[in-house]
């Protein structure tokens, strides 16, 4: 069923512990309870996704470290743009399902640069409520599992999903959102990293290399205003 992954990165455990403290007995915390000052030291590795009617979730905010990894400002982009070739459906389904069923999830992924270098990442996705039972945002973090001297100076072309898991088992409830989302049992990827060679060939072809990757704009990183 995809259960069994555990968080191994300090950033992941810190933000998840903070999220758990804020939600208390609720399924997910209200967004106005999140205080950037409480997690200031890990803000560069945090991001916020928001649900969009009939589309994949999109970035409302992305920390400076994440934008540096990808070599561009991510605010306003679809979550699908991070992922390789034909693979984005699974990560999008996972992120959308986290919001729809109010269940946090853990993703293991590998980032690939245009030169073929790669690095493993840990990603945590946690549902956040705007008001009442409306869970239309997601708090996430993206953390490399080991240092890499080239990361940040050489941008990542894409992330490839390796494994995913629900962070804990409990009855997931359905909330009303303006598009279809998978059932909780379907939140776990069926790909498990299969076919990465083909995904890399598709992502690194000449057409893909022609994308416009603008510079990161740190001034747009406004965590407390964009929550």
Question: How would you sum up this structure, described in words?
Answer:
The protein has 227 residues and is an alpha+beta fold. The protein has one domain (10-211): Beta-Lactamase. 22% of the residues lie in helices and 24% in strands. It has a six-stranded antiparallel beta sheet, sandwiched between helices. The two termini are 32 Å apart. Mean pLDDT is 81; it is low at 171-221.
Quick overview:
By secondary structure, the chain is of the alpha+beta class. It contains 6 helices and 6 strands, in the order αββααββββααα.
Strand order of the largest sheet: 2-1-5-4-3-6
Q: CATH homologous superfamily, by name?
A: PAS domain
Strand residue percentage:
15-25%
Q: Catalogue the unreliable spans.
A: 171-221
**Helix and strand string, N-terminal first?**
HEEHHEEEEHHH
Helix-strand layout with pairing:
Layout: H1 10-23, E1 46-52, E2 55-62, H2 64-70, H3 89-101, E3 105-113, E4 118-128, E5 137-144, E6 156-166, H4 196-203, H5 206-209, H6 223-226
Antiparallel strand pairs: 1-2, 1-5, 3-4, 3-6, 4-5
What structural keywords apply?
single chain; 6 helices; six-stranded antiparallel β-sheet; Beta-Lactamase; 227 residues; 6 strands; globular; alpha+beta
């Amino acid at each position: 069923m995809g259960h069994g992954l555990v968080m191994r990165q300090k950033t992941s455990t810190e933000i998840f512990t903070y999220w758990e403290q804020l939600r208390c007995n609720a399924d997910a915390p209200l967004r106005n309870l999140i205080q950037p000052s409480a997690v200031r030291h890990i803000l560069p590795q945090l991001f916020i996704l928001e649900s969009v009617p009939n589309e994949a979730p999109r970035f409302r905010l992305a920390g400076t470290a994440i934008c540096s990894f990808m070599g561009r400002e991510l605010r306003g982009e679809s979550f699908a743009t991070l992922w390789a070739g034909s693979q984005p459906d699974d990560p999008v389904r996972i992120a959308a399902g986290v919001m729809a069923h109010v269940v946090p999830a853990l993703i293991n992924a590998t980032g690939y640069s245009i030169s073929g270098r790669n690095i493993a990442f840990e990603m945590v996705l946690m549902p956040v409520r705007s008001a009442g039972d409306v869970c239309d945002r997601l708090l996430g973090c993206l953390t490399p599992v080991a240092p890499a001297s080239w990361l940040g100076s050489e941008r990542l072309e894409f992330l490839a999903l390796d494994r995913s898991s629900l962070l804990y088992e409990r009855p997931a409830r359905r909330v009303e959102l303006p598009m279809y989302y998978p059932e909780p049992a379907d939140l776990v990827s069926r790909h498990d990293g299969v076919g990465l060679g083909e995904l890399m060939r598709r992502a690194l072809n000449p057409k893909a290399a022609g994308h416009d990757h603008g510079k990161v704009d740190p001034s747009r990183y406004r965590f407390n205003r964009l929550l």
